[in-house]
Every structure is written in C-alpha cells, then in structure tokens.
Amino acid sequence: KPTIAVLHGNVVGAGIGLAGACDFRIVAEDTRLLTSFLKVGYSGDFGGSYSLTRLVGTAKARELFMLNERIDAQEINRLGLATRLVASVETADAVAQEMARKLASAPPLTLGYMKKNLNVAEDYPLERAFEVEALNQNLAGNTEDSKEAIRAMFEKREPIFRGK
Fold first, then answer.
1. Exposure of 7 by Cβ count < 10 A (0-12 exposed, 13-18 middle, 19+ buried)?
2. pLDDT tens-digit series, residues 54-69
3. Beta strand pairing call for 32-34 and 84-86
C-alpha cells in the first residue's frame, strides 16, 4: 500500500526513519530535520540510516548522521526528500488528503505491483528489474481491475476498481 507522511515542525531521530519509509513526504515550510542520535550517544534506529542513504545518497546521509546538522524545509526539498513542499501544515494536510484520495481511487493490485517493481529497482540489477516488471505487468494485466479500466476507457467513463 502507498504511504504518505506529512512533515512539519521538528522531525528528529526515529521520525526521520518513519518519514523515510513512506512513499511520499509532504513537507511544510516550518519543517526542520535533525538526526540527533549523535547528541544522545545513539547510532540510529527506525531504519533512518537505510532510508536516508537510499533517498539522499551515502555522502549526504553520513553528513546528516555524523555531523548532526539541522536542515530546513528548503534543503529537505533540494535533497529530494520532499514529494511536495508547501507553505503550512494545513496545506500539507490538504495535499496529503488529496493524494490519498487519488491513490484510493486507483487499482489497488496495480499499485502493489508498481511498488514491488520500484523496490526491486533499488536493490537489484537491471536484468532482475526487467524480470520482475514483466511478471508484475502480466499479473496486473490479468486482473479484473485492468479489464474494468480498459472497458471504462472505451466507454468514456471512470473505472470502478474492486481490488480483483
């Protein structure tokens, strides 16, 4: 299932790991990110080192953890951590709700296959990604939701997905 995080205020420690594990991050302008583990003598948890390394690269993840410097919403966005950068937490909530509605109206099995494809693309060679894509494309194309989408397209109406 797709996941959405709304970030505002201070995102510290485990909050970074939780946000990094999400598919989408809506970031309000008041957001500040700080790993903070070094300050309290901990090495990190909640998968923050895993997700940050994948999202911003090894060098920047090392900098964020080991130098323990606070970054603001503009830098969060520049680093590619933000799916959307918005003015306020109220706007962030509204954007997240709209995104959730859009995702909820999509074929759920197809979203699952897409997420599997994207996860494989992060960790495996191209050949394996092709194999997984081909398998999941075949599986998605054989769902009732796919058949409904094609019918709806020809009938010029919105499809009704049932997760089958």
1. buried
2. 999 999 999 999 999 9
3. unpaired
Q: pLDDT digits over 70-91, tens only?
A: 999 999 999 999 999 999 999 9
Provide the 10 A C-beta neighbour count for residue 113. 21
Residues 6+ apart with CB under 8 A from 53: 61
